[in-house]
Every structure is written in C-alpha cells, then in structure tokens.
Sequence to fold (123 residues):
Amino acid sequence: MNLHYGPFDADRVSADPGLSFDDVLLVPRRNRLRSRRDVDTAMQLTAGIRLAVPIVSANTPWCTGARMGIAMARAGGIGIVHRMWSPADQAAAVAATKAAGPGDAPHATRDAAGRLRVGAAVG
Fold:
C-alpha cells in the first residue's frame, strides 16, 4: 500500500527535541523574579497562535470534544478535535466551543473575532 500525503516540507518540521513531563524536573529555588505573577509560560504554537499555557489536549475521541475545547481555551491552552469524527461532528464541536465564549478568563486563547480558539485535526 502506497500512501502519499503530499510533498514533505522540511522547513515546517522542527528538528529540536521535544520534551514530555517525564523528561523535566522542576526544582524549587530562589530566582530573580519579584513575584510568581511575573512568570510567563506563554508559547508561540504557530505563526498566528500564541498560547498563555503550553498545553494542547490530545486529538482523541475520548479526550477532546466541545467541553474539553472550551476548558482548554479558557485556561489559555488549546484543544484539537479528533480527526476520525465525521465532518459534521467536528463542525459541531468547533461551533459549540466558539459559541461558549471566553467567560471571565483573562488569558483565554481566542481567534481574531474574540471567540475561543479550537483546532480540528484533518486527514
């Protein structure tokens, strides 16, 4: 079976090693910060998407639906809806997330229109 998904673009693939929670140990100690409020955990996910917290929920059917998408975006992360759902189910989860609104979450991940941002896996 020959599967072809299009040309490989090496410029879009990071060669940097990735880390999981098991790879990192945070040891409390003194630092130069004046307050815990000065800590910045934000990250640039893509050129147009910045997350307040570097957490992306799994694009699995038992993990990310509308409820998780809303919770992730309000917390400053992002949820990715499962790619094996039907297009109608994906669209419904995305629509429900965007309709929920950011509430009083100051660091919510939002799109250009101010709605909660959620992703849908394709392919």
Q: What stands out?
A: The helical segments are 66-75, 87-100. The radius of gyration is 17 Å. Strands lie at 43-46, 49-51, 56-57, 78-81, 119-120. Residues 87-100 form the longest helix (14 residues).
